[in-house]
Design goal:
Layout: E1 31-40, E2 53-59, E3 74-83, E4 86-95, E5 98-110, E6 113-122, E7 125-137, E8 147-152, E9 155-161
Antiparallel strand pairs: 1-2, 1-7, 2-8, 3-4, 4-5, 5-6, 6-7, 8-9
């Protein structure tokens, strides 16, 4: 299973497959979004000593939903519920042949902020996450919609794109 924000550390916000769902998530505005995520491991310790994992993504109307509900994993169910500014995503998946359940709540605080809290239950125990997504502005030069990665020395460094074949 592919994790959103744990580019080198540990899975944070899980990308889930497109599928049957009751509600549609609101669209975020197009441009660059920065995600800051703190992951708490099953033993209660914080990954990376509690330091947030910070990544950026280039979002447009065609890729926005994919950042939250992407194919490429082995989830057998996906349900999006809620309305207004409050949503929940629940899914049952397998990761390396083992069952994983995911529950996330998304709070669309304002047009430039989404807060996510999640719980991933897997064999090693529950992993929780807390993330804040903030709109930064236009995507940086060289970024295309769907890109995600880091900013190093003022330059975008791509780690993935939600449209890449392995993510479908």
């Amino acid at each position: 299973m592919r994790a959103v924000i744990v580019a080198g550390a540990l899975g944070a916000v899980f990308f889930l497959p497109l599928g049957a769902r009751a509600a549609q998530l609101p669209s975020r505005q197009a441009g660059m979004w920065q995600s800051s995520t703190v992951v708490t491991l099953a033993d209660g310790t914080k990954a990376r000593g509690g330091a947030p994992v910070v990544t950026v993504s280039c979002v447009d109307a065609l890729t926005d939903q994919k950042f939250f509900t992407i194919g490429g994993s082995s989830c057998t169910s996906l349900n999006i519920s809620g309305g207004g500014s409050q949503y929940a995503i629940d899914s049952n998946c397998t990761d390396q042949g083992k069952p994983v359940t995911v529950h996330e709540t998304l709070d669309y605080v304002d047009p430039a902020t989404v807060e996510i809290n999640g719980m991933v239950n897997e064999g090693a125990g529950p992993i929780s996450l807390s993330a804040e997504l903030k709109f930064i502005g236009p995507c940086m030069a060289g970024m295309v919609p769907g890109d995600e990665g880091d900013i190093e020395n003022g330059q975008f460094v791509k780690t993935d794109n939600v449209n890449d074949p392995g993510n479908q």
